[in-house]
Design goal:
By secondary structure, the protein is mainly alpha-helical. The chain has helices at 2-17, 50-67; strands spanning 20-22, 28-29, 40-41. The chain has one domain (18-67): Rubrerythrin, domain 2. Bound molecules: zinc ion.
Length: 68
């Protein structure tokens, strides 16, 4: 089950790199709940994935090639 293992590794890596910020006291943490009992959210907006970026270029290229 290599696929499942890859997925688990991905999930662990994702959890490790996800830094959250407390909405109440502004403390940075990796936990979903702060020591003060408030929720923690990701401080930065969801960034575009490289796949989306390339999809944009692919689309514009497709449009170009169609208009020719
Ligand atoms: Zn807090």
């Amino acid at each position: 089950m290599a696929l499942l293992k890859n997925l688990i590794v991905k999930l662990i890596l994702q959890k490790m790199t996800e830094i959250l910020k407390c909405i109440k006291c502004g403390k940075y943490t990796l936990e979903k709940f702060c020591d003060c009992g408030s929720n923690c959210l990701s401080p930065k907006p969801a960034k575009f994935s490289p796949e989306d970026k390339y999809a944009f270029y692919r689309l514009s290229y497709k449009k170009k090639s169609q208009s020719l």
